[in-house]
């Protein structure tokens, strides 16, 4: 407990949100890894259990920034939109072999894929095998 009034807590919360918001971010460059994940949680309802999903796409710039985005669905359209809005065209984009990432070679300097079984090796060695 902070021991502050509701008005002070409200003000502090908005100040924290404002400080965390990063506007006009530069495009990510160099080697950028893209990953997607679907987080699942369950919520109790009177009629039973309801399953909910939240899709998250993350971009990791080697030696730089990390950006994560909530998307309604993980489709090729949403993946390419997130990547094209945040990654410079001269970047090397690394992804897994999800079909939604197909076609990135024409928009970026280089696009490499790695099978899911070798993703652990990617983080140890620092680059892809193909």
Describe this structure in words.
- By secondary structure, this protein is an alpha/beta fold.
- The chain has one domain (about 30-125).
- It has 3 helices and 5 strands, in the order H-E-E-E-H-E-E-H.
- It has a 5-stranded mixed sheet with strand order 3-2-1-4-5, covered by helices on one side.
- Strand 1 (about 30-45) and strand 2 (about 50-60) form a beta hairpin.
- It is elongated and about 55 Å long.
- The termini are far apart.
- Mean pLDDT is about 80; it is low at about 45-50.
Structure summary:
The protein has 130 residues and is an alpha/beta fold. Helix content is 25%, strand content 35%.
The number of domains is 1
Largest beta-sheet characterization: 5 strands, mixed
Net shape = elongated
Strand content: 25-35%
Distance between the termini: 52 Å
Helix content: 25-40%
| Average pLDDT, all residues | 79
Structural class: alpha/beta
Provide the spatial order of strands within the biggest beta sheet: 3-2-1-4-5
Rg (C-alpha, Å): 19 Å
Summarize the helix and strand pattern as letters: HEEEHEEH
- The count of helical stretches stands at 3
pLDDT below 50 for ≥5 consecutive residues: which ranges?
44-50
Oligomer: single chain
Number of strands: 5
């Amino acid at each position: 407990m902070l021991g502050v009034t509701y008005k002070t807590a409200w003000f502090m919360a908005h100040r924290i949100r404002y400080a965390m918001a990063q506007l006009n971010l530069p495009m990510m460059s160099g080697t950028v890894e893209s990953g997607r994940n679907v987080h699942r949680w369950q919520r109790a309802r009177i009629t039973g259990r309801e399953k909910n999903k939240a899709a998250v796409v993350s971009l990791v710039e080697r030696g730089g920034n990390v950006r994560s985005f909530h998307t309604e669905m993980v489709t090729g359209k949403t993946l390419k939109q997130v990547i094209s809005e945040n990654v410079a065209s001269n970047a090397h984009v690394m992804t897994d072999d999800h079909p939604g990432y197909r076609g990135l070679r024409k928009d970026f300097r280089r696009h490499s894929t790695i099978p899911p079984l070798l993703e652990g090796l990617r983080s140890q060695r620092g680059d892809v095998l193909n």
